[in-house]
Design brief:
By secondary structure, the protein is an alpha+beta fold. It is built from seven helices and ten strands. The termini are far apart.
């Protein structure tokens, strides 16, 4: 299945969706947003990183910023933080660039404000970028990297078949929810306290007992 351009969703949202489908829907369906300390720090990091006119050379490798990408199979579009172009001796599984002669192997790098995590939130966003580049240039990319600003460390990620399947699954679910227009219900979790949308989402209300159950238990049972 391929998505039409009018039905494409923002690629950056896939990380939000993995973290919390309700958070993603509040932003991308209801168009609601609030900042907190963590989101501001993230915005400042990307403001310094996402300069499309900045070109960096490290040895023989070139680094491009804010490269536009899209995948009709995922139905996602967006910008990469950075793509390293590594020199290649062969045209196979390589790309060309109008400004730089020769053949190059793209290596996507996604910048994050914190540190590495045990979950797959960041990896799925990175895999989505890889799938976009593969589709656009008809190549295969086996690995990419996450750079964590807090620890100043690059973590190399293998784009496995399992990670690709998870990425496609998330993208498909995002489209289903977006098409329905229905925001998922809140689930109160420990991570909710760090979410900038907590005051809009009100996850704690989800754990409250519905009035109907309270009345049945405390009023109707006593009068029967």
């Amino acid at each position: 299945m391929e998505y039409e351009e009018d039905n494409m969703l923002m690629l950056s949202g896939i990380q939000h969706y993995m973290f919390c489908p309700r958070q993603w829907a509040l932003v991308h369906i209801e168009q609601q947003w609030l900042d907190n300390k963590l989101t501001v720090e993230g915005e400042l990091l990307h403001k310094n990183v996402d300069d499309p006119f900045y070109r960096q050379k490290n040895g023989n490798a070139l680094t491009l910023r804010s490269v536009p990408i899209a995948s009709k199979k995922l139905g996602l579009y967006g910008l990469t933080d950075a793509v390293e172009l590594i020199p290649s001796m062969a045209a196979e599984n390589s790309i060309t660039h109008t400004n730089y002669p020769g053949y190059w192997k793209p290596f996507p790098i996604e910048y994050k404000r914190g540190h590495s995590k045990p979950d797959k939130y960041d990896e799925v966003q990175l895999a989505a970028q890889v799938i976009c580049l593969e589709e656009m240039y008809q190549i295969k990319i086996d690995s990419a990297a996450l750079y964590y600003n807090e620890i100043r460390h690059r973590e190399y990620i293998f784009i496995t078949s399992l990670l690709r399947d998870l990425t496609y699954k998330c993208a498909s679910e995002m489209h289903e929810i977006y098409k329905s227009g229905i925001t998922p219900k809140a689930i109160n979790k420990p991570c909710c306290k760090n979410c900038s949308l907590a005051d809009l989402c009100l996850p704690e209300l989800n754990s409250c007992q519905p009035a109907s159950i309270y009345l049945n238990k405390n009023l109707y049972e006593k009068t029967s």
